[in-house]
Amino acid sequence: MKKFKFKPVALGVIAVIVVAAGAYALFSSPDGGKTEPAAAAPKPALTVTAAQPAQTRLPIRLSANGNIVAWQEAIIGSEASGLRLTQVLVNVGDTVKAGQVLARFSGDSVLADVAQARASLVEAQATAADAAANAARARTLQDSGALSTQQINQYNTSEQTARARVAAAQAVLDAQQVRGNNTQVLAPDNGVISARNATVGGVVASGTELFRLIRGGRLEWRAEVRSDEVVRIKPGATALVTAASGTQVAGTVRMVAPTVDPVTRNALVYVDLARNPGVKAGMFAQGEFELGASPALTLPQQALVLRDGFTYAMRIEPGNKITQMKLETGRRLGDAVEITKGAQAGERYVASGAAFLADGDTVQVVPAAAAGAGPGQTAAKADPAQAASK
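RESULT FIELD:
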């Protein structure tokens, strides 16, 4: 009977001991009874600096194309006829002043003609003096009846005819002297010689073109602007013109054409250009008109990534997660790029190294002074001061 009663008691004691041992082992373990290890935090893919979209004012520009031409081009021709060129004193590209001698014709025949005209004038003057004396004597005898009225009238007519011949001879002399002055070809204005057709030894006719002159050396850019945009341009507006040679020159709008080409639907805008040896008449040029400024949201150029023909930026989310954002860009000014769509003020974006990141990556954000870590580096490795203290 005792043996039968002892067995259940022994089994109960043994069970209590086993439970107590298990509880002790459970509560005395270092992980507090947790058998599964905690999940490790993701390792940053890159150490980066952050940039926020900035509100600024960017200039409004209007682009156009056109040709560079002379402001005004003067044609210098020959006023003398049948004379031989003996000297050509300037060449293409020379800068000349108003009144400067450009070429000379042979003046031998002209001097002979002038001498002949002067002699004819002296002869006419002598004849006129004799006729005047005869007419004066005839008038003194008018009341005496020694000469008839008809004879007196003849003397008076001879006097007037002689005076007319003197005036005609004087006119011939003046014409020959003018012809003598035309043996020198003079510059009509200050400017630059743009073309030369004069050749030493050539005998040219009156009106033959000898030189072309860019008046004042002034050049202008004739920009072709669409009819729907030309109303935005006003006289006095500034422009920056880039010639085909790569030379950039500043300009000022002088006038806007009052008509539009019915074929191209473009209007010409005349822009006076500052003098620059790298800009020549006849060059094709591109330019931009400055039309004021407007507010804009901008990001640094290095924060943008070009992929598959689109522009992206890496937005830093809470927890330093990366979200790839598709953006639309507009104007540019130096390193600043206007963001027209896809970004908001106050957001944070990866300022540099965005090309190494993908959507969903984790980054380590550090101040700009601590930047410089490569892909896979942590902030501690990127900061020399922290590394030195360890």
